[in-house]
Q: What sequence folds into this?
C-alpha cells in the first residue's frame, strides 16, 4: 500500500512539473536564419501542442502556421512556431503574430555576421510529435552569452513554493488539532472493545473449564 501511495504521489508531481515546464516562459539566445509558413495537420494526438483556434475554426483539421528557424550558439538548430494565444491557455495574451513575424525577418543574419536575439517562448520541441515551442517575444541582445534572467519564472516558482508550504503547514496543524485526536479516540475505542471481548472470552473459558473439572 505504501508503494502504491508513493508511486501515485511521484506521478502527480512529475505531471505537475511537466505542466509548469511546458507553460512557464523560457529564454533562448539564438541566431535567426529563416522564416516560412507551412500548412499543418492538427490530428488528435498533436492538437494539444498547437494554439487553440478561433471558435469558428475549431473543427478545422489543418491551418497555415508561421515558423521561425534559428541556430543556438552551440550550433544546434531550433524551430519555433509563431501563433497567437489570444485569451486562451496559456495566458500570454499574444495577439501580435504579424509583428513578431516581421521582427523575426528583420533579425535574420548569417554565420559570418551573426545577430543574436533572445526569444521568449513556451512549449517543447519534439520531432516525433511535431511539437514546436511558441515564440512570444524577440529582442536583440549583445552576444550569445547575454541570456536574460527569467525573473517571472523565478518569482512564480518562489511564490508557488511559499503557497504549497503554507498549505502544508496549515494541513499539519489541522491534522494535529482535529484528525489525530479523532483517530486516537477511535483507536482507544477499538482497543477498549478488544479488551472487553478478550475479558468475556476469558470468562467463558473459565466457566467452561469449571464445568469440565466438575
A:
Amino acid at each position: 500500500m505504501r508503494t502504491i501511495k508513493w508511486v501515485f504521489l511521484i506521478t502527480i508531481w512529475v505531471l505537475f512539473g511537466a505542466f509548469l515546464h511546458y507553460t512557464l516562459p523560457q529564454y533562448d539566445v539564438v541566431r535567426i536564419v529563416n522564416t516560412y509558413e507551412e500548412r499543418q495537420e492538427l490530428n488528435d494526438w498533436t492538437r494539444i501542442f498547437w494554439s487553440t483556434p478561433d471558435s469558428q475554426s475549431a473543427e478545422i483539421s489543418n491551418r497555415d502556421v508561421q515558423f521561425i528557424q534559428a541556430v543556438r550558439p552551440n550550433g544546434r538548430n531550433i524551430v519555433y512556431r509563431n501563433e497567437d494565444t489570444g485569451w486562451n491557455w496559456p495566458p500570454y495574451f499574444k495577439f501580435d503574430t504579424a509583428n513578431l513575424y516581421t521582427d523575426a525577418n528583420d533579425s535574420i543574419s548569417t554565420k559570418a555576421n551573426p545577430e543574436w536575439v533572445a526569444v521568449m517562448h513556451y512549449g517543447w520541441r519534439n520531432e516525433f510529435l511535431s511539437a514546436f515551442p511558441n515564440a512570444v517575444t524577440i529582442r536583440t541582445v549583445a552576444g550569445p552569452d547575454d541570456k536574460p534572467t527569467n525573473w517571472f519564472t523565478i518569482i512564480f516558482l518562489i511564490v508557488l513554493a511559499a503557497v504549497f508550504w503554507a498549505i502544508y503547514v496549515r494541513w499539519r496543524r489541522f491534522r494535529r488539532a482535529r484528525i489525530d485526536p479523532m483517530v486516537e479516540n477511535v483507536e482507544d475505542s477499538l482497543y477498549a472493545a478488544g479488551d472487553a471481548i478478550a475479558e468475556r472470552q476469558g470468562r467463558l473459558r473459565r466457566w467452561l473449564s469449571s464445568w469440565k473439572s466438575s
User: Anything to note?
Assistant: The helical segments are 2-23, 97-106, 151-213. The two ends are 52 Å apart (CA to CA).
